[in-house]
Amino acid sequence: MEKFVNQPLKSRSFFTVPLSVLLATFATALGAQSVEAAKPMALRTIMERLGRDMQAVTGAISKEDWPLVAELAPRIAKHAEPPMSEKMRILAWLGADAGKFRGLDGQVHDAATAMGEAAQRNDGQAVIAAFSKTQQSCLACHQSYRRSFVEKFYGSR
Ligand code: HEC
């Protein structure tokens, strides 16, 4: 038994132990990090979806696939909303700015709706104009609120 312990295994365990300690340290660090980092807000998932749908519209415009634009536009206009509890947190944080925030979301709604209507008329120019208006509304909200939102709800960046 003693012979077994003192044989080559010993030198192997010399590496094995520190490695496992190292791994445990990493695991602890990772664990601590994921506890520290706030879990993603539902709004982020909604935004990612909006981003993908806008990209899909760009592709559809390039192909002059107006039926596809007409299908995508209402998804952008009537995107999902965060659950009530998250909405309350966001509105509480916005305070007096809630109206402006909602207004920018309303601009996205109106511009995307116009884009869908233009697509139904196969009016490429109007689709592109409305697409631009939609994107400007996305940008306006991001420029006003995104950084402070991330700082508030994720405590970083
Ligand atoms: C009323 C405000 C508002 C409007 C309008 C808005 N966004 Fe956002 N968007 C946000 C906020 C706030 C964040 C940060 C969310 C987060 O990090 O959890 C964000 C983040 C994003 C992100 C990054 C998500 C990530 O994974 O970090 C994308 C992509 C995005 N928005 C796309 C869009 C698109 C496309 C539109 C327009 C069609 C749009 N947004 C309109 C407020 C808005």
- Overall mean pLDDT: 86
Structural class, from secondary structure content?
Answer: mainly alpha
Radius of gyration: 26 Å
Shape: elongated
User: What's the count of strands?
Assistant: 0
Strand content: under 5%
Pfam family, one: Cytochrom_C_2
InterPro entries: Cyt_c/b562, Cyt_c_II
GO molecular function, one term: heme binding
Keywords: Signal
Characterise this structure:
The chain has two domains: 2-36; 42-154, Four Helix Bundle (Hemerythrin (Met), subunit A) (Up-down Bundle). The chain has helices spanning 2-6, 9-36, 42-62, 66-77, 84-94, 98-120, 124-154. The mean pLDDT is 86. α3 packs antiparallel against α4 (66-77). It is built from seven helices and no strands. It has 157 residues and is mainly α. 12% of the residues are buried. Bound molecules: heme C. Residues 1-37 form the signal peptide. One of its GO terms (molecular function) is iron ion binding. Keywords: Signal. This is Cytochrome c. It holds the Pfam family Cytochrom_C_2.
